[in-house]
Amino acid sequence: MSTDTRGSWGSRFGFVLAAAGSAVGLGHIWRFPYVTGENGGAAFVILYILCVFMIGVPILFAELSLGRHSHKNPVGAIKAIAPTGVWKYLGYLGVATGLFILSYYTLIAGWTFGYIFKTLFQNPITFTEFSTNAPLNAFLYIIFLLMSIGVVYGGVQGGIERWSKILMPILPVILLFIIIYSLTLEGAMEGVRFYLRPDFSVITGETVMIALGQAFFANSLGMGAMITYGSYLNKNENIIAAGTIVVIFGIFISFLAGFAIFPAVFAMGQSPAAGPELVFVILPTIFELMPGGILIGTLFFLLLAIAALTSAISLLEVPVSFLIDERKMRRKVATWLVGGITLLFGIPSALSFGASDFFSNLPFWSGQSFFGMMDYIFGSIALPLGGMLFSIFVAWRWGLIGANKEISLGNASFLGIQSTVWGVIIKYICPIVIFGVFLYSTGIISL
Questions:
Q1: What is the CATH class of 3-441?
Q2: How crowded is the C-beta side of 132, counted as CA atoms within 13 Å?
Q3: pLDDT of 326-365, one tens digit each?
Q4: What are the structural domain ranges in the chain?
Q5: Which of 340, 352, 386, 441 is the most exposed place for a label (fewest CB within 10 A)?
């Protein structure tokens, strides 16, 4: 297979923006604000940032180094180190997790795209009516999926890197515009105090687990995306520097998202603890009431759509890279094939909000929806399980000597105290902590 077929990043800047785009998705701009609102504001933000650097960063380095070492997808990366045995199934788990999360993630992403026009043209349809409209959901799903396919179809440099360089700089610009506007609203300072003045008395064991889970899920870990993106890095790249920039950019975008939302929420007398409906129910109501809200709301949902697209691209690239590496497919064929499989599993998710009684109330899944089943299996089980096993594989099967050597390429100073601290965290702390997140997210334990 030619190098051109597989592809590589053209620059560190391109990689950083693509990897940041993978991490900065709905998890940062949709999920982070409502989780913060439900868990006390500023104290949760501080706890989340600590969790990102203690757990998220070490695992990110592990996944990037594993990908670059092999220049392969998750399956190929595992097989390059452990060609026989059961470890190869961990690679397949990563590929499957990325594919199936994409299948239902695209539905929410399609909603963000639809809400751009709903807000712009002031369509009065409620969120319930919107989410149960099967033809509309299917149309938005296919449109968004086609946009993702179009980018991945173009390859690593010509598609993913090129569009990441265009889309990612737009995010902070739109956010800053919305922040400036929100801060001018009467009563906005109440939201600022909620977001910046910590009250550590609200921190409980459950809060810690939620912060750990958010730190893990919001950084594209455990699904093979960072292994795949790492596989396109050259050996001279400084993984520590590039990975740290990616994480800091993600935190920055999360922080800005909260700053854009909470002042407006408090100014309009709404509750910051509205939950998942904060973005699709509460915020549209706020936009309707505030002066200039049509423009601000349209920009906000454009922002969400861009963030969703950059994450969807990375989810799609994982199985595409697998087919290119392991099945020797051409990128164009692999991209359309994965897109078709995604659509096959995505349509039931699109019918899960009342459009189909069967998919909305699965008889074999305690009456829960197909969407809920997929999110539970792959979001609550496969994702943390994959992250835990990837960290164990790097630390115990590949070994710290090999991993440290790979990370030190492009950063010789890593060998020493940095590698020792990283080794302790990835070998002992990460597996234990992620296992705790896994038990909590699956409901096995509660705090």
A1: mainly alpha
A2: 10
A3: 999 999 999 999 999 999 999 999 999 888 999 999 999 9
A4: 3-441
A5: 340
